Amino acid sequence: MNRSELYKKVAEQTGLDRASVAQVCDCLFDTVIDTMKRDEHVTITGFGRFEMRSRRPRSFTNPKTGASMTLESSSAPGFTPSNAMKKRVRER
């Protein structure tokens, strides 16, 4: 499902027009992203938790040159589903 299909599905289920749904969803996505940029987590009860996760520095060898290099530490967005969400997905 892509973004426009999501908007369409939510609009059908709520009876709202698609433009309003798009505006609300975009605001929700932006708020989650802005919160994660501040290194804070977002927990939506019954759905899950969005957070930034740290990645340790890693060493690797370039197979072409044989040179040993180090990849710096970084962070990446992560999602942990709630138990309620896991249960609903398993019940399909």
Describe the structure.
The chain is α+β, with helices and mostly antiparallel strands and 92 residues long. The chain has a single domain (3-90), classed as IHF-like DNA-binding proteins (HU Protein, Chain A), CATH 4.10.520.10. 43% of the residues lie in helices and 29% in strands. The protein has helices at 3-14, 18-37, 83-90, and strands at residues 42-44, 48-55, 58-61, 68-71, 74-81. The strands form two sheets. It has a three-stranded antiparallel beta sheet. The chain has a two-stranded antiparallel ribbon with strand order 3-4. Strand 3 and strand 4 (68-71) form a beta hairpin. The longest helix is centred in the first third of the chain and has 20 residues, at 18-37. The two termini are 17 Å apart.
Summed up:
With 92 residues, the chain is an alpha+beta fold. It has helices spanning 3-14, 18-37, 83-90, and strands spanning 42-44, 48-55, 58-61, 68-71, 74-81.
Query: Strand-residue fraction?
Result: 25-35%
Structural category: alpha+beta
| Extended strand count | 5
Average pLDDT number: 95
* H-E string: HHEEEEEH
CATH architect. name: Irregular
- Multimeric organization: single chain
In the CATH scheme, what's the topology name?
HU Protein, Chain A
Topology:
Layout: H1 3-14, H2 18-37, E1 42-44, E2 48-55, E3 58-61, E4 68-71, E5 74-81, H3 83-90
Antiparallel strand pairs: 1-2, 2-5, 3-4
Helix pairs in contact: 1-2
